[in-house]
């Protein structure tokens, strides 16, 4: 029986900044959230959510400007494959040029 080593990764996925980006996000959000919930239940996503504008802290309406999550997989390539299958990626919500996927190690505080 082989044991595969899993590593943690952080994914920083800012949204595109064109005028239609926010509407694209909202239009596919239910499908994205359903997929993210499945990935969380399956153990891939450890924690994740939307990044907000600083003004969102004091305003009743929250403006989402991207996503960030920590996941667990065997390689960066495996993470990239999952990210590139996400509806936020395929529909152009996330800015593919600014996306970052890096190994992550938690500090033991």
What does this structure look like?
There is one protein chain. This protein is α+β, with helices and mostly antiparallel strands and 109 residues long. 32% of the residues lie in helices and 28% in strands. It has one domain (16-61, 73-103). It has 3 helices and 4 strands, in the order βαββααβ. The protein is globular, with a radius of gyration of 15 Å. Residues 17-95 form the YCII-related domain. Pfam families: YCII. This is YCII-related domain-containing protein.
What oligomerization state is this entry in? single chain
Give me the count of strands. Answer: 4
**Radius of gyration from the CA trace?**
15 Å
Strand residue content? 25-35%
- The domain count comes to 1
In short:
By secondary structure, the chain is of the alpha+beta class. The protein is built from three helices and four strands; from the N terminus they run βαββααβ.
